[in-house]
Design brief:
The complex is a heterodimer of chains A (about 90) and B (about 250). Chain A has helices spanning about 30-40, 65-70, and strands at about 5-15, 20-25, 50-55. By secondary structure, chain A is an alpha+beta fold. Chain A has a single domain (about 5-90), classed as Phenylacetic acid degradation B (Ubiquitin-like (UB roll), Roll), CATH 3.10.20. Chain B has a single domain, classed as Ferritin, core subunit, four-helix bundle (Ferritin), CATH 1.20.1260. In chain B, helix 1 runs antiparallel to helix 2 (about 35-60), helix 1 crosses helix 8 (about 175-185) and helix 6 packs parallel to helix 9 (about 195-210). The chains are: A alpha+beta (about 90), B mainly alpha (about 250). Chain B: One of its GO terms (cellular component) is cytosol. Chain B: Pfam families: PaaA_PaaC.
């Protein structure tokens, strides 16, 4: 069964104006069935207004073994964070 | 008039409760997790509609019977559901075909019920019409995939058609009570949904490469309380808790 039915990644947009977020995965024979299954599995409590399904095979993921070279070099570049500005009082909460 | 309307509402409610219970039997037994959620989802839609219909029937009847009394304290001969919905689940092909047959009938029926003279029924119909539209889609896609799938799935789908098609005629039959309610403008005329039903089924069958079944003897009797063996077992299981513990609540 599992071999015959490919894996799909499910993305759901909770409200208009927000972006689709990854919520999980499921097995389905094709894109039509994947969309229905996503509706039945992931929107039972009114979680969404729009669903995307993507074949898991179509996703290229970064290799956890390369995490050091991929992500660590940013750790000491604190000047990339907008924390060196003083926000005038009048601006209030940002 | 109100007595006939109560009876006709019970026919409709029994269809929904019995089919909802049948689908709930798949819970924990479906062939894959995705369907294990999808089938109870549909069951809850149907049982939700049944609750509204029982409540309305009890209200009009005015004898103080609530939805639980009507669902749990009527015996097999008092149940008025059509025979199609009580058929056992069989395999996945039979379950999905039964669902498609019923949903393809209810969709035009609920649409027509939008102009019922009963405001409560209009409300139930407005909610249910969206639910059954999804049931048609879900069951229809499965029928297409099984009918036009492997040799094994195509054989099972063809067997399901042979097994279940003879129960579809009863969907369009109106009991004397239903006829009276239809004439009074309270319920849609069952026979008038046949065109839409057949169009839906023929579209799915064509895509599923299923042949249209030859004319067979149409099984009827459910509206008069004459059921098959299957319903008694279903009711025994469904009603046993309430009969052992009358008034049990969550």
């Amino acid at each position: 069964m599992v071999e015959a039915t490919p894996l799909w990644e499910v993305f759901i947009r909770p409200r208009n104006g927000l972006s689709h977020r990854h919520v999980g995965s499921l097995h389905a024979a094709d894109e039509v069935m994947a969309l229905q299954a996503a509706r039945d599995v992931y929107t039972r409590r009114g979680e969404g207004t729009s669903i995307w399904v993507v074949p898991s095979l179509a996703i290229t993921a970064s290799d956890p073994d390369h995490a050091d070279e991929m992500f660590e070099p940013t750790a000491d570049k604190i000047y990339r964070h907008p924390t060196f500005y003083e926000i005038p009082e009048e601006v209030g909460h940002m | 008039m109100s007595e006939a309307f109560v009876t006709a509402l019970l026919e409709l409610a029994d269809d929904h409760l019995v089919l909802g219970h049948r689908l709930s039997e798949w819970c924990g037994h479906a062939p894959m997790l995705e369907e294990d959620l999808a089938l109870p989802n549909m069951a809850l839609d149907l049982i939700g509609a049944a609750r509204g219909l029982y409540a309305r029937a009890g209200e009009i009847e005015g004898k103080g019977r609530d939805e639980d009394d009507l669902a749990y304290l009527r015996g097999e001969r008092a149940y008025l559901n059509c025979l199609l919905v009580e058929r056992e689940n069989g395999d996945f092909a039979q379950t999905m075909l039964r669902q498609l047959y019923f949903a393809a009938f209810m969709e035009p029926y609920w649409r027509a019920a939008a102009s019922s003279d009963d405001p409560v029924l209009r409300g139930i119909a407005a909610k249910a019409v969206k639910e059954v539209a999804y049931h048609i889609r879900h069951a229809g896609e499965w029928v297409v995939r099984m009918g036009d799938g492997t040799g094994e799935s195509a054989r099972r789908m063809a067997e399901a058609v042979e097994e279940l098609h003879r129960f579809t005629d009863e969907l369009f039959f109106s009991s004397p009570a239903a006829e009276a309610a239809e004439a009074a403008g309270l319920l849609p005329v069952r026979a008038e949904t046949r065109g839409a039903w057949e169009a839906t089924i023929r579209t799915v069958f064509a895509e599923a490469r299923l042949g249209w079944p030859a004319q067979v003897w149409a099984q009827q009797g459910g509206r008069a309380g004459a059921h098959g063996e299957a319903l008694g077992h279903l009711l025994a299981e469904m009603q046993s808790l309430h009969r052992a513990h009358p008034g049990a609540a969550w």
